[in-house]
Amino acid sequence: MSGYDIIDEAFIDTSPDLVWQALVAELGGAAGFWVPFNTFAATGPADQVGTEVKWTVHPKGYDKGGPKLRFTSRTTYVDPGRRLDAEYFEGVFRGTVTFTVSPVNGGLASRISIHFKAVPQGIAKVLAKVADVGGKHSQAAQLAFSNLNTLLGGRHTANGAPR
Would you say which domain of life the source belongs to (predicted)? Predict the structure, then answer.
């Protein structure tokens, strides 16, 4: 396969503002909901154009051994609270990623999505010959979104007040 074009999405039972805050914090290194499969470190706020985010994918889980897939993105576009675009320019992927957060149910809930469009390089290209890298990506994204819903879901209304 020459590349991936994958969209994963989920519904989170809380306001888009809280989902956006959690997403930006996670990309900044908070390790709140994408662990155990992805960890992040950023050079600044992830929702600031020009910020670089170092991604590490832990296929077997954090600190469980096995290969670590590392790559770096640069934030290229931000619509605050709604959309963050970045380009992968270094490491095992080249391409783009777009995160979107949108209100549903009158803003009492949210839809979050990740659009991963990338071509594997190096070890990721080799692994793609023997493993379903795209499938693993979707599994990790769906687990992260489930973790996010557990972390935030049902705790706040659109204006941030407890239910």
Answer: Bacteria
